[in-house]
Structures are given as C-alpha cells and as structure tokens.
Amino acid sequence: MPAQLRAATAQRLAHQVDRALHLAAGQRIALYAALPHELDTTPLIALAAKRGCLIYLPRIDRAQRARGMRFVQMRGALRTNRLGIAEPQSAASLGARWLDIVFLPLTGFDPRGVRLGSGGGFYDRAFAFRRWRRFWRAPRLVGLGYAFQELPHLDAATHDVLMDAVVTEEGMRRCATG
C-alpha cells in the first residue's frame, strides 16, 4: 500500500474510533506502536492524548518464560525490542484487567471477532482470563485494521480470545462478544 494512502487511511481510522468510541479523559487505553506492515496508530495515539486518555503500550517481558506481555504507560522515549517493536521505558505498568479499551493489531479478522495476528500469542495470553469468565466489564478488545482484511470465516483455536469489535477506515463492526 502506498505511503500516502496508508497515512490517509490511518487518519480515517482515528476519525472512526472518535465517532464510535468517544474516547474520554482518564480512560486507560492500550495501543501499539505499529510495525511497517500494520495500520499506523500515530493519529489514534495523538487523538487519545488530546482527549486526556492514559495511554499504555505493550512491552514484552523477557524474564517471563511464558512469553508474557505487560502494558506500560507511554512516557518519554520508546526503545525497539529484539522483535523490532517500539516499547516504552517507563516503569508504570498496569494489569490487563484494569485497562478500559485495548486496540489490537491484526492481519485478518472475521465477523465473530476471531483475530489473525502475527503468531506470537502475546495478546491471547494477556487476555486469557476472558475465556474463563462469562461476563466482564473491561477491557473492551477492539481490533484495528483495513476493511480488506475482513474474511468470511477464520477457524478459532482453543486459546484464541475473541474481539468485541473491529474498527476500519469504513467504520466500526461489532463482533459476537461486543
């Protein structure tokens, strides 16, 4: 996708999030620093900051044998980890259960909320508690992607955590759990 179209799409996506989710001051929002093949989150990060949200980015914890991930408040400079992902250096982390909205990267999705990611399983492990509880209030899991990434059906693995919604440049799609 050409860089100019990619940038315009990222702006439209931020606008769609603003229309659908009404980000507000004090909300604990988890985003991600996009890799080159992912939808750029820079406009959405700027929007969340403008609205007064507390912004957290995922950080992969090397010390955990289970390939864990923490959510760390976005303050100061970011550092690139061994996988090429930009991460915050702040020590202020928050447990996944205490986030209000988590925006997830994806490479594909279906109407039920099955997400095809990059294969590391970090998000599925971080939100595994959602598979064991019938009702929860937070966090809301929202995929970010291009409209063309929607597929009619993806087979879900037993460890997959479903999304509540997906936002594309065309708008928000509620999933089965949302």
Describe what you observe in this structure.
The chain is built from 4 helices and 12 strands, in the order αβαββββββββααβββ. The protein has a single domain, classed as Rossmann fold, CATH 3.40.50.10420. The two termini are 30 Å apart. Helix 1 packs parallel to helix 2. It is α/β, with parallel strands linked by helices and 178 residues long. It has an 8-stranded mixed sheet. Strands 4-5 form a two-stranded antiparallel sheet. A two-stranded antiparallel sheet has the order 8-9. The relative contact order is 0.18.
What would a concise description of this structure say?
Helices cover 21% and strands 26% of the residues.
Fill in the CATH topology.
Answer: Rossmann fold
* CATH homologous superfamily caption: NagB/RpiA/CoA transferase-like
Summed over residues and divided by their number, the pLDDT gives a mean of 90
The helix/strand series, from N terminus to C terminus, equals HEHEEEEEEEEHHEEE
CATH class: Alpha Beta
Measured as a percent range, the helix fraction is 10-25%
Topology of this structure?
Blueprint: H1 3-21, E1 28-30, H2 42-50, E2 54-61, E3 68-73, E4 78-80, E5 86-88, E6 93-94, E7 101-105, E8 108-109, E9 115-116, H3 122-126, H4 129-132, E10 140-144, E11 165-168, E12 171-174
Parallel strand pairs: 1-2, 1-7, 7-10, 10-11
Antiparallel strand pairs: 2-3, 3-6, 4-5, 8-9, 11-12
Helix pairs in contact: 1-2
